[in-house]
Amino acid sequence: MTRYKLLTVGQLIDGTGAPPQKNAAILIAGDRIQAVLPHPPADLDESVETHAFPNGTLLPGLIDAHVHLTVDPGAYNTPEFIWARNDDQLVDLGRRQALQFLNAGVTTVRDLGARHGVSLRVRDDLAAGRVTGARVLAAGPAITTVQGHGHFMGVEVANHAELAAAVDQLIATGVDVIKLIGTGGGVTAGSDPLQPQFSAEALTLAVERAHRAGRRVAVHAHSAAGVRNCLDAGVDTIEHCTFATSQGVAPDEHLIARLAEQAVYVIPTLAPWYVLRDSDDAFLGFPQFGLSPRRMSDQVLANLDQMRRAGVKLTIGTDAGTWKLTPARFYDELEGFRQAGFSALETIAAATSVAAQALGIESEAGTIAAGQRADLVIVPGDPTQDFSVLARPALVLQAGQIHPPDY
Ligand SMILES: [Zn+2]
């Protein structure tokens, strides 16, 4: 028998960027939104379970497009942490962090890098209902070069043939998305964030194989040269996109115009630096260039503002799992978007409808409309007046199931 729930709320923000609707109600049938009503119905069948939040705002369940569930935010040195744990321990950590995301109002996360198949195990445990937590789309291990960035938890390839085989093999194991490390990165010793790891030709080969199998491609890229390769190859999402140089972040106007024109989704991952913005510890910024989180934070915010003005599609992704970046810090990424000039409604859209489009799940998630899965959050107030209410969800629903957040 289908179970019906009626939620009545002070206002509803549908995730599209449209203004809030006052005194709205939605009817949920099983795991789906059955109807969005302009006001609560006058009389109701008594079998309908009702929940009233007269001061609350209803939003689509939030989405984090870039996480590492099986990396410990309590570990200062990620490679050392990974080497010291077995796969079962990483899976346990992943389950715990998926639950913490749900408590933060995040109903879907995309995991963009985990050792072996551990993120797939976490995803499958959640999908089967063996544990409770945010729904997971998983890349499995990221594809990198030999000793390249993230090699301690990735698949290393030495040439085009190995790259093609790695893409095919990951698809065969059931990954939802292919993640490639397009340039060097911060936490890997000996890695140069300015140096492309894969040519545009190599990325194109991966994109063609992944798209043929119906999978999207997410590419980690810091420098302009790395971003250009992503654009030439037609990747789906570019992760970080800092336009890093040895002097700091230097947004490239021409490439930003191309990002907007090609409508590529960019996930700027401000949080690793924004959360640590009081720190001068270069190991946590860009150790290769002696850039502290304090300097990186200011510069990535300015870069985000420039991309926003140019009309680039920008999506929330925290890079959770890096130092101090617990699921509860999801809110900090939202706050970073606000600092960079996004309105409250634009920021919410970046964490809901735009994120769902970036992940290819917009027919199911990211907006409040009849037929969508009932992934929802109620926050205790009006986020357009007091943005911080987004850090304190009053109620979370995942596929119509009520989850009282516990923090
Ligand atoms: Zn990452």
Structure in words:
This protein has twelve helices and 19 strands. The model has no long low-confidence stretch (mean pLDDT 95). Helix 2 (87-103) crosses helix 3 (118-127) and helix 4 (160-172) packs parallel to helix 5 (200-212). The strands form five sheets. It has a seven-stranded mixed β-sheet, with no helix packed on it. The protein has a five-stranded parallel β-sheet with strand order 10-11-12-15-16, with helices on both faces. The protein has a three-stranded parallel β-sheet with strand order 5-6-7, sandwiched between helices. With 407 residues, it is of the alpha/beta class. Helices cover 30% and strands 23% of the residues. The protein has helices at residues 78-83, 87-103, 118-127, 160-172, 200-212, 224-233, 253-261, 271-274, 293-310, 330-339, 344-350, 353-359, and strands spanning 4-12, 21-29, 32-37, 49-60, 62-67, 106-111, 135-138, 143-145, 155-157, 177-181, 216-221, 237-240, 244-245, 248-249, 265-267, 313-314, 376-379, 395-398, 401-403. It starts with a strand and ends with a strand. It has two domains: 4-60 and 366-403, Roll (Urease, subunit C, domain 1), CATH 2.30.40; 62-359, TIM Barrel, CATH 3.20.20.140. Zinc ion is lined by residues 66, 68, 112-113, 319.
